[in-house]
Amino acid sequence: MSNRLFDASVDPADLPEADVRGPWAYLWWLARIRPWPLVLAAVLGALWMVPLALIPLVIGRAIDEAGESGGQAGLYLWSLLTLGLGILQAVAGAGLIQAAVGAEAHALSVTHRVLVRQVVRLGATLRDEARSGDVAASAAADVESIGNTFEVVGRTIGAVVAAVLVAVALTVTSPVLGLAVLIGVPAAVLGIGPLLRPLQERDEAQREQMGIATSQAGDIVAGLRILRGIGGEAGFAEGFRRTSQRVRRAGESAGRMEAWLQAAGVLLPGLVTVGIVWLGARLALDGAITAGELVAFYGASAFLTLPVSTATEAAETLSLAKVAAGRVCALLRRAPGSVRPERPEPLPAGALALTDPATGISAAAGRLTVVTAPADRTGRLADRLSRPGAADAPAVLLGGVPLERADPDELSARLLRSGPADVLFSGTVREELTAGSARSREALARALFAADAADVVGLLPGGLDAWLDEGGRTLSGGQRQRLVLARALLADTDLLVLEDPTASVDAHTEARIVGRVAALRAGRTTVVFSDSPLWRGAADHVVRLDAEPATGGPDRSAGVPS
After folding, report:
1. How many CA atoms lie within 13 A of 496 on its CB side?
2. DSSP helix/strand/coil, 376
């Protein structure tokens, strides 16, 4: 039967909404949306573990019957039964592996997909909502911890069923031994409980340090070229070494607690086994049980170390999964910057006019408007013009429609903001520029020409089919900026907001880009944040903004026509 959750054609958006009220709620949601792998793993786990529990009892019975009758028939019968139990265990074990891996893969796949969906929903607000290291750690370590929990479920349920079966069998044979098992095994499992809380706390501390280290490493790699230019790589490397040492110490602390947990998983069931064997030997000497029953008791008590160790593993895995699921839920609970209004208003067709009453920025439909503002304000201003803002702030109007009341899907299709924070992803140049959408060769050529990026592509081996590393690390800053600009122009949106699109190129290249962008975007609305006189010279309208008022009052800057 095909599994739609693993079908590459299934979009993450088609998955049901995750239950993020807490880590246990999320884990239960994962089990609930596709329970059959877990149910099958539980059944096969019981079929795999129960023969292990029964074999010592069968062997003990064979010894007693052979000793009583002196014949071979009963011995052959019990031997065949032992062989049958071994075959059942082998078959069930093979199926258990498949079912457990399927349950683990389900948890991994679904968690990955809901994380991807959330990252897409958050969009550009993700940087403000979470550290990049936290997102990377959730997609790697946290997802793996959640998957491990689903893998161990079948064996754990099988261990519980087998332990109960052994306890019942021993109770029927000897109530004293059965009582010892019924008391000793739960006591051994409960004995590891006090270790779980410290393990969770140390795992949380390690996970926090890992997120910090991952974010720091990503920042260093992204800015390595600049760091080398200013001679700052040694200082940042030393800072990362200190961070990595904190990660190591947190890992050692968690590892010590995990070692104590593993030691308890060996010691406590071992004590139960020693106690049951000693008690069984005393009963055998008193004639209360037979030699075969003593062998069965010894084998059964030795077997009980397996359910207890499995329970220990499950407790440890669940502890780690609780921490991981809590991190995943924290990311999934973050609200996106824009929420779909109940009754979205359609935007007018064609070029869009833009008006911001709070700052005085206005851009006529189909015209090129250049905004000159202090460098520390341009990013926030570009965000304000391209994203729905706070409810208590004056609304930015797009074609007369407040941004907050526009349909987010239509808004993303007709408005694009591009700036220095935009990145190049790994893939071919063609895939990077088109973002997977169909674009004609002529449209690609026009966008590359306007961004003065045709020579950048021409120098790459393979041209448009050349492979770009993540972030375009092999390109210079100016080359990356021109490709990012070409990608924004190729989107061909009705409103384009550009933040310092030519900050990394020389004056001659900037002059070519300004003229070509103005020509390419003729008839569509374009807003450019730049203090370059070249952009101001090509603009239909220039808006000059002063520094942000310290009092927090309205911005008194006025638009100045060019």
Report:
1. 26
2. helix
d(CA 491, CA 441): 14
**What's the CA dihedral at 235, 240, 241, 245 to 10 degrees?**
150
Question: What's the rounded mean pLDDT across residues 539-554?
Answer: 69
Question: Which residues are CB-neighbours of 514 under 8 A, at least 6 positions away?
Answer: 502, 532, 534, 535, 537, 538
Q: Is 39 exposed, middle or buried (0-12, 13-18, 19+ CB in 10 A)?
A: middle
**Residue 562 scores a pLDDT above 50:** no
Find, among 176, 171, 163, the residue nearest to 53 by Cα: 163
Distance CA 534, CA 453 (A): 19
The answer for residues whose C-beta is within 8 angstroms of residue 37's C-beta and 6 or more apart is: 99, 102, 103, 106, 150
| Residue whose C-alpha is closest to residue 500's, from 530, 477, 534 | 530
One DSSP character per residue, 120-154 reads: HHHGGGHHHHS-HHHHHHIIIIIHHHHHHHHHHHH
- Specify the pTM: 0.61
Both tokens of 441, joined, read 């060769």
Is it the case that residue 512 has pLDDT exceeding 60? yes
User: From CA 320, how far away is CA 148, in angstroms rounded?
Assistant: 9
Tell me the three state secondary structure of residue 446: helix
Type of residue numbered 80: L
User: For residues 362 and 543, is the Cβ–Cβ distance under 8 A?
Assistant: yes
In this prediction, residue 496 has a pLDDT band, given cuts at 50, 70 and 90, of very high
Reading the block at residue 242, the tokens are 């200190």
Q: Nearest Cα to 525, choosing from 559, 498, 560, 552?
A: 498
Per-residue DSSP letter, 342: S
| Nearest-angstrom CA–CA distance, 415 and 410 | 8
pLDDT of residue 199: 63
Bridge partners (DSSP) of residue 497 are 417, 527
Phi, psi dihedral angles at 402 (to 5 degrees): -60, 140
Amino acid at 471: G
Contact status, residue 210 vs residue 247, Cβ threshold 8 Å: yes
CA–CA distance, 39 with 59 (Å, rounded to integer): 31
Phi, psi of 70 (to 5 degrees): 70, 5
pLDDT given for residue 51 in this prediction: 83
Residue whose token pair is 């760091």? 227
